[in-house]
Amino acid sequence: MDSGKIKIAIAASAACIAAVAANAAIDVIPLPAKVAERGGVFSFRGDIARIAKFSKDASIPAEGYRISVTPSGVAVAASDAAGGFYAVQTLRQLETAGGDGVTAIPCVEIEDSPRFKWRGLHFDDCRHFFGKEALKRTLDFMALHKMNVLHWHLTDDQGWRIEIKKYPRLAEVGSVRRGSPKRARDIAKGEKKKNSRWVCDDVKYGPYFYTQEDVKEILAYAAARHIKVIPEIELPGHAVAAVAAYPWLGCTGKNPGVRWQWGISRDIFCAGNDKTIKFLEDVLDEVCALFPSDVIHIGGDEAPKHRWKHCPKCQKRIKELGLAGEEGLQGWMTRHFTEYLAKKGRRAVGWDEVLAGNPGKDTIVMSWRGSKGGIAAAKRGNDVVMTPNDFCYLDYGQGLKNDPHEYIGGKVTLEKAYSLEPTAGIPAESAKRILGLQGNNWSEYTWTPEELEYKMWPRASALAEVMWTPPERKNFADFRRRAAKMRKFMSDAFGANCAPVQ
Ligand code: ACM
Ligand code: ZN
């Protein structure tokens, strides 16, 4: 199927095939904006993406589409390729298989377009590395849900996961750690040390990283599904793997070793060292050459200022530039890299901590410590992506009975995820600053792709509906019913390991 193109497909003779289901339901996630059921079905053999008749209609909003199903055929209209692609995703969910290779789609008129333009999922390959197949499955499931942004977390304390040709030690050294924290169930009685939340398993982890060829393969796979991939290169914090590869990047010059514990480290990039700044520019040069995304994530969260307080170079920079202490120094760094990326035609996005450093208005703020950072950012005129931890963190517990998995803590039930209103608390004149939202899959407590899938779905299905569907159309009881059906579909068609809908 060349689903990315709007094209005229040859009408099939399938209309002659006897109907196989008289009353198929319009059970689609995310729920379309407008649906009018007509009764009856269109029955066919083959692939609906060929069989449907596509046309272009410039009056349809970006990424939107119109579908008309009658007993004699399916007509799709869209103004862009993404709209045509999303129409096909809707049709796939409407299909009911009959006997003898016959498929039925209920007769319906659908007019649909997204509420938000940033419909994202975040993927942490640093704490645990999942690899290309898991990424591709995630991209498939995202496409099914009309999600269009993959935020790829590629660098952190516990692993540097992308090849940078100018600095080969990032991948060679930074992608390997001496071990990982044991799962709770594997910690023997009395094994845990006082003052430590973790016990090292002493099983070497890595080298695990993506070559630039791997990245290109993922980018092509995502592009075919109308998904933009946004890389995250964390600065100034979450930098231990890089500092272990090149100790001069840090304030002390000492090698901290790639971090095996979870949590936050004091060893961040030295903001006073011009060589460190140049290093980060070089990394961003290669990243920008590789990723076509107009947006690049530069982190900014959880950067303790202890090292900077005691570093002559960092203190000299603060004094020379008249900055407001260490927070001002982080603000300087955020502005520096926002401007650096702007010269390359890219926008920077940072976690909500960047607000403390008074970022430029062109920096996109990602609100994760609840929604308050996003509300403040929208009010001051920054664009915002909402990913409040109390609704969007898919590494938090799901509140399920008999859940075999370990979680980082917290609780985000399916209903809670579904209940997010991303513009709540934001004055109407600032609401347009909310570009959208995303679910975050931090992976400290997620060991395998199967666990990742279990934690992601169906809560990401709930977020997908928040991203797309007009809020007045949302209804949790109805969503829950459709989510159970989607779970079965994902399991039957892809062998997905989704959590149960309880
Ligand atoms: C974050 O969860 N540290 C952005
Ligand atoms: Zn320093």
Quick tags:
502 residues, Chitobiase, domain 2, TIM Barrel, eight-stranded parallel beta sheet, 16 helices, globular, disordered N terminus, binds acetamide
CATH class of the largest domain: Alpha Beta
Which term fits the overall shape? globular
Mean pLDDT, rounded to whole units? 94
Name of the CATH homologous superfamily of the largest domain = Glycosidases
Estimated helix fraction? 25-40%
**Biggest sheet details:** 8 strands, parallel
Small-molecule binders here are: acetamide, zinc ion
Question: How many strand units?
Answer: 18
Shape-level CATH architecture of the largest domain: Alpha-Beta Barrel
Indicate the proportion of strand residues: 15-25%
Q: For the largest beta sheet, what order do the strands appear in spatially? A: 11-8-7-18-15-14-13-12
The total of helices stands at: 16
Q: What is Rg?
A: 24 Å
Instruction: Output the CATH topology of the largest domain.
Output: TIM Barrel
Which blocks of ≥5 consecutive residues have pLDDT under 50?
1-24
For the termini, the CA-CA separation is: 36 Å
Derived from helix and strand composition plus strand pairing, the structural class reads alpha/beta
